[in-house]
Design a protein that fits this description.
single chain; alpha+beta; Peroxidase, domain 1; 2 domains; 4 strands; elongated; hydrogen ion transport; ATPase_OSCP/d_CS; ATP synthase subunit O, mitochondrial; ion transport; membrane
């Protein structure tokens, strides 16, 4: 009997599963980049395209313009990128153009970045405080967070200031959220009293 073979070997599959249309494009680019051993290069190129779309209003508007014919966008992406970018990046951008999805470029790039962070073992953590944290406080929180993530994972810490939490901290690690703020405690008490 014939055995079913999957088209993607395990070594090329992303370490996390992302869903949705943008994730499909990102997954395909990730697999193609993995097979061609150009994951980091494609990440750099996609970040460059994303930055250009953000910084250059004309280019950003071109990507989002639905009135330009698909074939015109495909040829424009090919002529613009084929000399400067890897075949994987050119293929992704021309595929997005051919499928009228260039407006989603930023979302596709964000999904690809998520896949790369998972590959590198990075876990994003956000600390929200009422006042800016000192370096010592940030280091202490980062050290405490290492116990909350699996071994071998690296915590990428970002901080935000939100005076409306009044005091304390709000911590988000991946999809987990912990509210240790004064405003959170007040809300809990007021809900209990009502």
């Amino acid at each position: 009997p014939a055995a079913r073979r999957f088209s993607v070997q395990a070594e090329h599959k992303p370490l996390i599963n992302l869903y949705g249309i943008n994730a499909r494009y990102a997954n395909a680019a990730y697999i193609a980049a993995s097979k061609s051993k150009s994951l980091d290069l494609v990440e750099t190129e996609l970040l460059s395209i994303q930055k250009t779309a953000h910084d250059n209003a004309e280019f950003g508007d071109y990507l989002k313009n639905p009135t330009i014919a698909r074939k015109d966008k495909v040829s424009a992406m090919t002529s613009l990128l084929s000399e400067k970018m890897s075949p994987v990046t050119v293929n992704l951008m021309t595929t997005l153009a051919g499928n009228a999805r260039l407006a989603d470029t930023t979302k596709v790039v964000d999904s690809y970045i998520q896949l790369m962070k998972a590959k590198r073992g990075e876990v994003e953590a956000t600390i929200i405080s009422a006042e800016p944290l000192t370096k010592a406080q940030s280091d202490a929180i980062a050290t405490a967070m290492k116990g909350q993530v699996p071994k071998g994972k690296k915590v990428i810490l970002s901080t935000q200031v939100d005076p409306s939490i009044l005091g304390g901290l709000q911590v988000q690690i991946g999809d987990q959220f912990l509210d240790l703020s004064v405003s959170g405690k007040i809300s809990t008490i007021s809900r209990a009293l009502v």
